Amino acid sequence: MFSINNILRENIKRLVPYSSARDEYQGEASVFLDANENPFGSPLEQQYNRYPDPLQIEVKKRLSEIKGLPIRNIFLGNGSDEAIDILYRSFCNPGVDNVILVPPTYGMYQVSANINDVEIRNVPLTPDFQLNLEGIAEAIDKHTKMIFVCSPNNPTGNSINRADVETLLANFEGLVVVDEAYINFSRQRSFIQELTEYGNLVVLQTLSKAWGLAGLRVGMAFASEEIIEVMNKVKPPYNVNEASQQLALQALGNIEQVNAWIKETLLQRDKLVLGLKDFDFVEDIYPSDANFILVKTTDPKGIYNFLVEKGIIVRDRSKVELCAGCLRITVGIPAENETLLNTLQDYK
Ligand SMILES: *Cc1c(COP(=O)(O)O)cnc(C)c1O
Question: pLDDT tens for residues 148-157?
Fold first, then answer.
């Protein structure tokens, strides 16, 4: 049985979090002289002289409506990259604990592990980019604290079989972190609905991709109240700045625009696949549930350099495990995708 106390670091159990002025007094008042802010204002039209809400309640209220999840199950970070780092710092003892990664996958899981001096046990995906459950079971020991599953996966674009993730959730006594950065582009159901079923589930999402707010740095983690409490204790007090909170809240009111873009992105993705598959140098285009496609080519470096020369930048993933020959191409606006396809006509 999963119990958070079995995996939480002892120093985090004992941690007394920083108590900010905004934590100690949260009500309304006419005179705030408790936080050493500049009382005159900011030298800007918009005023940012006051510290932001440490728990981002207004943004979470809106997210709670959109996701159908109580505020107590929502954590907000300075990008989901911050949530990843906070999970490491909360649950993994440096030099002692390990995590399981399933490459090829998102690079930050590895970088964050290395920063925190946490051992990585790599269990590569199968050739069809699915979980190797036997390999994962063999790699787990009593120091294994987390398994990261990215679905839809970056850079391969496919979704991970739901039943396999459920097998991990039901049998692994550490955290299963399901990164759904690209879930808005997928036909698959989010794992958010499973939070009531599995105490060891953490779902990551972000406003950086479909929501079009990569520059604001707002990431989300959804998990049990216990896990969210730990993450809130460990995070820097004002981790999401006031401008990001205000603009995120505004953007979350415009879900129709985002849904229209998602629809258009999927149409454009199909068109891009059709356009690319006729080129001689394209060997394979992997099915994608995301806003990018992984394309296996005969000459990744040559094509990459050719495109750079024409001012078009794609991602060379050919050095990545199971991705030999592959370029990762983000779906652009129609004109950009056309430019890409037209330009590739001239590649010899
Ligand atoms: C882009 C991406 C993220 C980054 O999210 P931020 O919220 O911008 O930090 C997280 N996970 C995956 C798989 C991504 O591709």
Answer: 999 999 999 9
